[in-house]
Amino acid sequence: MTATKVTVVGIITLLIGVGTGYLLWGSEPRQLAGELAAAKARLAEAQQSAAREGAVATKLQQAEAQLKQMTETLRSERELREKLDALVSKKK
Fold first, then answer.
1. What is the pLDDT of residues 51-87, one digit of tens each?
2. Pick from 69, 73, 70: nearest CA to 81
3. Distance between CA atoms of 57 and 61, rounded to whole angstroms?
4. Helices and strands in the chain: count of H runs, count of E runs
5. Is the predicted pLDDT of residue 27 greater than 80, yes or no?
6. Which of 44, 42, 21, 40 is nearest to 32 (CA)?
7. What is the rounded CA–CA span in Å between residue 66 and residue 73?
8. Residue 28 pLDDT exceeds 80
9. In 3-state terms, what secondary structure has residue 61?
10. How many domains does the chain have?
11. DSSP assignment of 3-38
12. DSSP 8-state assignment for residue 41
């Protein structure tokens, strides 16, 4: 009777081990799949952020170029005004 009990306990232990292994076997790939999805989401967010930064940099360069052009225009307008004022002063 003791050998029968040992055999039954061994079979039950084996079944519990196989069942536990089966249940845990699929959990790691699911966890890795979740981590992969999170990493892909972070990558997409970083790419969007980089694109926004690139767009901002482009707009900044355009604004700086426009500012430079306006500064040159203002300088030339001031020079023309000074010349005009000088001509008007001479005629008086």
1. 999 899 999 999 999 999 999 999 999 999 999 988 8
2. 73
3. 6
4. 2, 0
5. no
6. 40
7. 10
8. no
9. helix
10. 1
11. HHHHHHHHHHHHHHHHHHHHHHHTHHHHHHHHHHHH
12. H
Instruction: Please give the structure tokens belonging to residue 40.
Output: 């892909």
CA pair distance 74, 56, nearest whole angstrom: 26
Here the tokens at position 58 are: 């482009």
38, with CB counted inside 10 A (0-12, 13-18, 19+), is: exposed
Distance CA 11, CA 57 (A): 69
- Domain range for residue 15? 2-91
Alpha-carbon gap, residue 21 to 26, rounded angstroms: 9
* Residue 73, token pair as written in the block: 């225009």
